[in-house]
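Lab notebook, bench 4. The sequencing result for the construct came back, and we need a structural model before the next group meeting so we can plan mutations. Quick request posted to the team channel:

Model the 3D structure of this chain.
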Amino acid sequence: MYYAYKKIKSHYKRKAEREGSPGVTDPDEDRSRQDPDDEEQMEADGDPLYTGKPRDPANGRSKKRAWMALLITGFALAVDFTMAMMSIQAFYYSLRGPQNLFGLTFGAYDLGALITAPILGYLSDRFHVFKILFATCLVINALGNLIYAFTFLGGPWYMMLIARLVAGVGAGALGLGASYCSQTTTVDQRQRRLVTYRTSQSVARMVGPFIGYIFLGLPQVNSSSSTALKVFNWYTIPGWVAFVVVAALSGLFWWMFVDPTVENEHVVRRVEQAGEATPERRREFYSFCGIWMGLVFFATMLQFGYYSNLFAVFAGQYHAINDQYDQWKVFLGIAGGACAASVTYRVGVKALPRIFDERYVAMATSWLFMGAVLLVIPYGGATSVPVEATFYASTAMFGLGVVMFGPSVEIILSKKVTQYQDVVGDNIAKILGVFYMAHASGRFAGPLILAAVTFIATPSGQTHYCANGYGTDSSGNPICLGDTDTSCAIFPDIYYVEGCVLKNAQPVYAVWAGVAGLLATAYTVTIWTWWSYDVGVVVVAGEDEPPLGEKAD
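Done. Here's the predicted structure in token form:
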């Protein structure tokens, strides 16, 4: 700390000498002339604790580098989560994994994140560090992806489950990003910063599957393929790409990121209330948090249950996929909606901040998801084949809504944490860690539930069924014999879906839409009930007499 102080003092002296100014050259002297109770003067004088902008240019550059490192690695971890989305369900079926356990396998990623999120939140609050925690998690995530890359060669379906669990443990670091933003930005800066951080991850989750487009031309793999093709193929390539990218970013992150401290002018002054929190304020805050975390859990559960099951819907109900070369169709609508939402939200927050207030956005997009689910219900019955346009419209609405919804609900929570700083104290990372746990729990529960009750099968419920029995082609690869119009089987290189339905799709997706409607109503009521961000009486910690209060919007 002493050396940091000397560096800052020397910087001010050199700056004054260069400018030839007879004015103040010593920061101590400058501060001595300020009224310690005059926050407006402190902010006008550019105090980093109030403005969030370092005085020292070197500190300003290091803060920007740290933010970019967090943004880039957060994006990479989010892409990692969904990079395998285009292939994972077909991959799992081709490994003959139990269909009712696909949700567990898919959700294992978030189960791992759920385990580590509270631990990381505690360590961050206890030791005030981010760098070592985030970097360690990146290494663990890379290891999980490496295991995934060898799944086809290894053989058993549960190897995929283990790989996703390990990778998810590393992805728990994403929960630290919101805590970092809260500690290094002012209230006015925080919305844009969190919008950028979370929107980039939401977009990554929606467009991540499109990385599979690059590799769609790879030769199709099957049980008789060479060892090299079993290691490097369309199904395993997401693991290889994620391993290389995350491993490389581990080094980049370590070089670019620095932990925020007062000495390097990265942290901002927390808004504090006069005296200790009253029991009434504690009840207010914890009532809001309890309701909000519950709503986040159920919303995420519905959204990611829908998201994880798209291959089953498009193959089993729409009969629109016959092999790996058709997989690009599944995520076309989502990518378009996600990209449109990202641009619209970022531009809207800057150009029309009142209209794109996070509270309005959260309410509107919660209703949008219900509409997306309604579009994929097979209204004509279990064996009906809906028009493909309804699938594209549904997925586009989903991509648009999720990308805007996720950041909005987190911004609302972040501002509530600021509003009730007297209740929260030094537990910012813990509160946001609980939020991440609620989010991760929903991402785990949604696929687990939906995949357990809906699955690809014949109308009578038979899975991996060839109407005229199994055979082999000239290369010794398994195929369905004879007329395949009533067959329902998924092989690595060919999908027989003409005889398939998505079992229980009509009642389950109707219930899913109904719950989404109830949830949208609950969000609307909750947001209106706790609409105000009124901070109340604001003082500097340690003051005996609080000044007149200010209000933060």
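The first strand starts at residue 272 and ends at 273.
Will bring this to the meeting.
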